[in-house]
DNA sequence: AGATAGGATCAGGGAGATTC
DNA sequence: GAATCTCCCTGATCCTATCT
């Protein structure tokens, strides 16, 4: 059984873990970035963020774990953006989005059934930490991962916005230039959100939530037995 | 056990705002 | 100006607690 420390993390910890995971795969592609932004080799933080692409590293050089003070990423000229190896061509992205939309449209959840605990945690985390106005491709992704219809996911966000309007929203753009409205915490973690990045965050968040709830249920079952043996 | 009330959630429609 | 999005309102449904 996994220890509680391993599964009980804040949502931003999940995002930060993801950023570290992606570090290895992006390190090669970002190696041409201005290295003057890196902390000095002697810095205790430099090892923690070693290999992390600079867009995930704060101005202090630390990995963006619940990050604040993220250094603005060096602007990449538009003509260069499309040539970056980790960005999918637009046509491929369109096909991918259509596939996901078809999958989401095929989901038939029970009418008016309330979201379960796992779905609620994931949705709330997205709402509180990433965005209260997810664009349609992200709604589709959530519908697929959480097995709710697109309509239900849309309505959940609409209703939640009605109930709690607190919190800041900042304007941003996707890697393809599409308009986004994100939470400040999301832009501090990553300035250039994409469908792929959001999908990975969503998958990990969903997995970890499931594991945590599983662990908590097991604990609840074990506790009475432990008390009896005392 | 069945009836009832109240709160929470889901979903649809209309009106106004925004974007292209 | 048309299309799209968001907000607001409303009704339906589900769940739980309480009463008879």
Describe the structure.
It contains ten helices and two strands. It has 230 residues and is mainly α. The chain has two domains: 8-69, no CATH class; 89-229, no CATH class. The chain has a two-stranded antiparallel ribbon. Strand 1 and strand 2 form a beta hairpin. Helix 7 packs across helix 8 (150-163) and helix 7 (136-146) runs parallel beside helix 10. The longest helix has 35 residues, at 195-229. Mean pLDDT is 58; it is low at 1-8 and 22-88. The protein binds a DNA duplex (20 and 20 nucleotides) through residues 111-115, 133, 151-152, 155-156, 158-159, 161-162, 179. Residues 108-168 bind DNA. Residues 30-51, 63-91 are annotated as: Disordered. Keywords: DNA-binding, Homeobox, Nucleus.
Any chance you could write out the topology, listing elements then pairs?
Elements: H1 4-7, H2 11-27, H3 44-48, H4 78-81, H5 90-106, H6 117-130, H7 136-146, H8 150-163, E1 170-173, E2 179-182, H9 184-189, H10 195-229
Antiparallel strand pairs: 1-2
The structure holds a DNA duplex (20 and 20 nucleotides).
